[in-house]
Amino acid sequence: MSSLKVYNSLTRQKEIFEPITPGHVGMYVCGPTVSGESHLGHARPYITFDVLFRYLQHLGYKVRYVRNITDAGHFEEEGRDAEDKISKKALLEKLEPMELVQKYTNLYHWAMAQFNNLPPTIEPTATGHIVEQIDMIKQLIEEGYAYEVNGSVYFDVMKYSQKYPYGKLSGRIVEDLLETTRELEGQDEKRNKQDFALWKAAAPEHIMRWSSPWGVGFPGWHIECSAMASKYLGEQFDIHGGGMDLLFPHHESEIAQSCICHHGVMPVRYWVHNNMITINGRKMGKSYNNVIKLTELFSGQHPLLQQAFSPMTIRFFILQTHYRSTLDFSNEALMAADRGFRRLWEAYENLLKLDTTSVPETGTDAELIAKVTKLESVFDEFMDDDLSTAKVLANMFELVPVINSIKDKHIPAVSLGGKTIRHLQERFKTYLESIFGFKAEAESNDNKLTGVMELLIDIRKEAKSRKDYATSDKIRNQLQELGIALKDEKDGGMSFTFL
Question: Which of 21, 56, 77, 442 would you call most buried, defined as having the most Cβ atoms within 10 angstroms of its Cβ?
Answer without folding.
Answer: 56
